[in-house]
Write a structure and sequence with these properties.
The complex is a heterotrimer of chains A (about 425), B (about 425) and C (about 250). Chain A is α+β, with helices and mostly antiparallel strands and about 425 residues long. In chain A, about 55% of the residues lie in helices and about 20% in strands. Chain C has about 250 residues and is α+β, with helices and mostly antiparallel strands. In chain C, a hairpin with a 5-residue loop joins β10 and β11 (about 195-205). In chain C, α1 packs across α2 (about 30-40). The longest helix of chain C has 17 residues, at about 5-20. The radius of gyration of chain C is 18 Å and the shape is globular. The chains are: A alpha+beta (about 425), B alpha+beta (about 425), C alpha+beta (about 250).
């Protein structure tokens, strides 16, 4: 019975001083909204980094010859039998969490035209699979990406095109040491020209159809890397572990997670998350301070109010309880308002992504991979819950202080005209 | 003016009387200041780190070439043409510019390195072992062995090149390079050190020789160099400094081209502008939150004093006097807070600047925009950001105090006292 | 086009002449194919001077050259003194250089095969490419008749659809009377001339008629050129594959 009365008193107190209530809760609302906004952006940025990284790199999970990662030589390739075994096994194990996978056959060689000869990295790819996998097609400047049925086609970077003095449709010759040990040439024509934000990639990466590469290099059915793209980066570890267990007996196969196959990217993300952690620590500290300050400063002017409550017959503890309830109530409302404001703001303004392409339209190099200049915020339930919890705790703890003061009030003193 | 002094005194007394409120408000301001300035410092640190990683390793912030050297890098296009130029005089001219910290001459050649059975194509870079360390950190990346000595036919190779050549410290390396007279320059060099920059393109391809050794190998006169690399005081000022140097050197009548790192590495410049934009958002968020905290505290604090103002007015004080007190209170409070804020901020800033937090535990190095990133949390400070942040918070706090005070003076004292 | 192929060219024509069959009746392809096959296994030794003129310098090299078929050749510099003893060995697809100053042999890595050979307008690759002209090109006679008072054929060589060659087409003029080539022009795919070989100084050496001089001019730098001139040339000398070894590359005469 008495509790209901106290509750009513608390509510009324909130309602009676709208301005103070609003100002106090504003600190929480704004703080929480900001946290939701910047956390979502940060999550989105990680997603983008990992996604771009694994797409241009070797997927979330890569299967290679154990020697390949260090040497990158054609000699250390997966032969047809192993390619089939590994791809079937992996699709079987990963099932639903697998988005797509690609085989790639890579070799270092020379691209020569009548104008120049340039050392290049040639990647034989399955055009249809590759276009849904890597984002290199989105950097198309001229011509088109490879298509199924292409044979003597090549997709090259702007700087390579410039050095070779070739355009879309021009012929040039790739030369590399094949599996037989001989140096052999392969004629290709430029199908398309791409431009990424990384000069080295523009200068040295060439995609050709994998079947052409296999024929030229005398490696039927072989691949250097099988790259698997999962539904989410968090599925990587479990996938890698299961596969490692299943393929334990195949000594010529190694299963790598993206952290292993792209160590630079992993390092970059770890450091970036440290930077983010620092930023959010500072932000959180300032938010906490704002909330604490708002609550504390508002309590100073309320001694008379507390005095009135006690004069009405409430005990000290009860007065404190009313004030605490009031704080909780405000905190709760602020929490709801804060999350909504944060979500609405982020979603409303940036659902299509925060576009940094005015600064770099071709993407930039980050941890050895191309990062697209558009960041799409991601709302992670976990992150939002954590933010909310932190803000609510700060609000609740802050409410304890006025409650304490209210409960220890000297009524006579408080009721004096001046404070 | 005596009147004015009175209001100052009232303001001071008010602050002192309400020590708790003053303390709360001041702490909000001081810590907000700390947060904002620290964030700017961390952002600036990351930016400077990014630029320096891109420039200090090898590039320098400004480079001088013969006007027809770039982009083909033809070995015959030396500064001053076939005749070359007097190096000492030329470098002294460049060094005489006040923004120039140091300058180092370089020559380049393409060639073959051979050791045992293995042969690799390499980019040969001739450097002055005494001058180069003042411009770039390249020689500090020598992880095994030692830097070069001029005139002893010594060579430094990248760690990956050493691996590809299958060679070791102390081994003889055959260096072959097309010479300026069309012949094939060739000589034996001793591998005295290996460097590891973390940038594969450098560690795989470069061979460093003493400038005069490379010139001799390539049958080039000692007066002929391809490049002067320059460091300047402030990397972000490079385009302006390059412009000044260009004008200055045009008097020497050597047909030279002066480029800043922003011309030489446009992708790095793009990256820096992106980072700048990103950090601007971050700093705005932090500063906004800090300003909001301060304003909010001030607002609530002042609103809560309505009764007090009413009493003062009832006692016959003009509304303008109340406004003045509040503003003065704000000024005094702001000053105290900022002094306190500076006292806590600066030691932290200077300490973090001098001993950056090592993040090697968290993350190894990696490259961003083609530059190797050291895993440290670097903090830079400038004069502007603390002043701007301080001024911003100061004005915020005063404005936030004036508004409710102004409102308060418009309310009839009787109403305020009756809590209406 | 190479020193090696130059020799090949010289031999081509010389042998064709000896055959004295009714060549008029043959197609362009048959002529060149026949020559190509006839040439394998031939050996030669010659004395040449190479004069190189570039925008930045010019120089002259005296060299001695041996060859065996299309697979093997060895070139040794005799003067100037600074470069005396410098030698290039081609064995199969590999090219090796001997540097007397440091007394070392080094293998030219694949990435530098397109680099200039001895500073000339020949590339290392020119030295290595086997004479696979018959496999890689389609031939047709684009002109038959009189040019500047001489009866000639002009052949047009078009790369086969998938042949791994960089040229868009090659044109070659051959004198009808003695089957001596006069020039070979290399075009890119847009039909722009890239470089020209011009033959001259036809005389009998080692018992065969050969063009003793060959001029290379890159089209984009008309003021630059390399001239190769034979002073001596002997055929069917007694060398076998062991002559074209790394050990022999190093050995000074």
């Amino acid at each position: 019975m008495r509790l209901m009365v106290l509750l009513k008193l608390a509510m009324r107190s909130v309602g009676r001083n709208v301005r103070r209530s609003i100002l106090t809760s504003l600190a929480m609302v704004l703080g929480l909204a900001l946290l939701v906004f910047s956390r979502s952006l940060a999550e989105g940025a990680y997603d983008e980094m990992i996604d771009s990284g694994v797409r241009m790199g070797s997927g979330h999970i890569a299967i290679q010859n154990p020697e390949y990662l260090a040497s990158r030589k054609l000699e250390y390739r997966l032969e047809e039998k192993l390619v089939n075994l590994a791809s079937e096994m992996t699709q079987d194990v990963l099932k639903e969490s697998l988005v797509t996978w690609v085989p790639r056959l890579s070799v270092d060689g020379l691209a020569s035209s009548t104008a120049a000869a340039v050392p290049v990295r040639i990647e034989g790819v399955d055009p249809d699979r590759e276009r849904t996998f890597s984002n290199i097609e989105s950097h198309l400047k001229d011509g088109r990406y490879l298509e199924t049925g292409d044979r003597l086609h090549a997709y090259i970077g702007t700087e390579l095109a410039q050095r070779l003095d070739v355009q879309v449709g021009s012929r040039f010759v790739l030369t590399a040491q094949t599996a037989t040990g001989d140096v052999e040439g392969q004629l290709v024509r430029v199908a398309g020209i791409f431009q990424t934000g990384i000069p080295e990639v523009n200068q040295s990466l060439i995609h050709i159809p994998i079947n052409t590469a296999r024929e030229w290099l005398h490696t039927p059915g072989a691949a250097s890397t099988l790259a698997f793209l999962l539904k989410g980066a968090e599925l990587t570890n479990i996938g890698v572990e299961t596969l490692q267990l299943k393929l334990e007996n195949e000594r010529k196969i190694r299963v790598l997670g993206w952290q292993e196959s792209s160590p630079e990217l992993a390092a970059a993300i770890r450091l970036d998350s440290t930077g983010n952690y620092i930023f959010h620590s500072i932000l959180l500290a300032i938010i906490a301070l704002a909330i604490l300050n708002a609550v504390m400063i508002s309590v100073l002017g309320r001694r008379r109010e507390f005095g009135v409550l006690q004069a009405m017959g409430l005990t000290g503890v009860e007065t404190g309880f009313v004030v605490f309830l009031e704080g909780l109530f405000l905190t709760f409302i602020s929490g709801v308002a804060g999350i909504s404001a944060g979500l609405l703001f982020t979603w409303g303004l940036f659902r299509d992504g925060l576009d940094f392409s005015i600064f770099m339209e071709d993407g930039m190099e980050f941890g050895g991979q191309i990062m697209e200049p558009i960041i799409i915020p991601r709302f992670s339930v976990e992150q939002i819950l954590i933010s909310t919890l932190v803000i609510l705790s700060i609000g609740t703890i802050s409410s304890l202080y006025p409650a304490l003061r209210a409960s220890k009030l000297d009524v006579a003193e408080a009721m004096k005209f001046e404070q | 003016m005596a009147h004015d002094r009175l209001w100052w005194r009232v303001a001071w007394r008010n602050l002192w009387r309400n020590r708790l409120r003053t303390l709360i408000t001041a702490s909000g301001l001081a810590f907000g200041y700390l947060g904002a300035v620290l964030m700017v410092g961390v952002s600036d640190g990351m930016l400077v780190e990014l630029i320096e990683n891109g420039t200090r390793l090898m590039l320098g912030e400004v480079q001088v070439h013969s006007e027809d050297y770039l982009p083909e890098r033809n070995m015959h296009r030396t500064i001053g043409g076939y005749e070359g130029t007097d190096l000492e005089i030329f470098l002294n001219q460049i060094n005489s510019q006040e923004d120039v910290t140091a300058a180092a001459p370089r020559a380049y050649g393409g060639g073959l390195l051979s050791s045992g059975e293995e042969t690799q194509a390499a980019l040969l870079m001739g450097i002055d072992p005494d001058r180069e360390p003042h411009v770039t950190t390249l020689l500090s990346r020598v992880v095994h062995g030692r830097p070069l000595v001029t005139g002893a036919n010594e060579i430094l190779l990248g760690s990956e090149m050493v691996e590809q050549l299958g060679t070791a410290l102390g081994d003889e390396i055959v260096v072959v390079a097309p010479s300026s007279d069309g012949s094939m320059g060739n000589d034996l060099f001793t591998l005295v050190g290996t460097f590891d920059t973390g940038i594969p393109a450098i560690d795989q391809n470069y061979g460093l020789l003493a400038l005069s050794d490379l010139q001799f190998l390539m049958a080039m006169d000692p007066a002929r160099i391809h490049e002067v690399a320059i460091t300047v005081g402030n990397a972000q000022d490079s385009p302006r400094i390059a412009e000044t140097l260009r004008e200055f050197l045009s008097d020497t009548e050597l047909p030279v081209q002066v480029s800043s790192w922003t011309d030489l590495r446009p992708e790095l410049a793009e990256m820096v502008s992106l980072m700048n934009a990103f950090h601007f958002i971050v700093v705005i968020i932090i500063f906004g939150m800090a300003a909001f905290g301060v304003a909010n505290t001030m607002l609530i604090g002042t609103f809560e004093r309505r009764r007090e103002f009413a009493v003062v007015r009832a006692l016959g004080t003009a509304p303008i006097g109340i406004g003045q007190t509040v503003v003065y209170e704000g000024i005094v409070l702001g000053m105290i807070s900022l002094v306190a804020g500076s006292l806590i901020t600066w030691p932290i800033l200077v300490w973090l600047h001098n001993s950056p937090i090592d993040l090697t535990q968290v993350s190894s190095g990696f490259s961003v925009g083609g530059a190797q990133w050291r895993p440290v949390l670097r903090v830079e400070y400038s004069i502007e950001s603390p002043i701007v942040a301080g001024l911003g918070l100061f004005l915020t706090s005063i404005l936030a105090a004036v508004y409710p005070a102004w409102k308060a003076t418009r309310v009839l004292p009787a109403d305020a006292l009756a809590d209406r | 086009m190479t020193v090696r192929t130059l020799v090949t060219q010289l031999l081509n024509t010389a042998l064709l002449l000896l055959l004295s069959s009714p060549i008029q009746a043959q197609t362009a392809r048959e002529i060149i194919d026949r020559v190509d096959r006839l040439l394998r296994g031939e050996s030669s030794r010659g004395q040449i001077t190479m004069e190189i003129t570039t925008e930045h310098w010019s120089r002259s090299l005296d060299m001695e050259i041996w060859s065996l078929g299309v697979e093997h050749s060895l070139v040794r510099v005799q003067s100037p003194a600074r470069e005396e003893g410098t030698a290039t060995l081609k064995a199969g697809q590999e090219v090796w250089n001997y540097l007397p100053r440091v007394d070392r042999t080094i293998k030219v890595p694949p990435s530098l095969m397109m680099g200039s050979w001895m500073g000339s307008h020949f590339t290392n690759d020119d030295l290595v490419k086997e004479s696979r002209i018959v496999d890689d090109y389609d031939f047709e006679i684009s002109f038959e008749g009189e040019r500047e008072g001489v009866e000639v054929w002009e052949f047009q060589l078009t790369p086969r659809p998938e042949a791994p060659v960089v040229w868009g087409r090659i044109e070659e003029q051959v004198r009808k009377a003695d089957l001596m080539p006069t020039w070979i022009r290399y075009y890119d795919e847009d039909g722009d001339l890239v470089r020209t070989l011009t033959f001259s100084g036809y005389k009998t050496m080692g018992g065969r008629l050969v063009p003793a001089s060959m001029l290379v001019t890159p089209a984009d730098k008309p003021e630059e050129q390399t001239v190769l001139t034979y002073h001596e040339l002997d055929f069917d000398i007694s060398v076998d594959e062991s002559f074209f070894s790394l050990r022999n590359l190093r050995a000074r005469r």
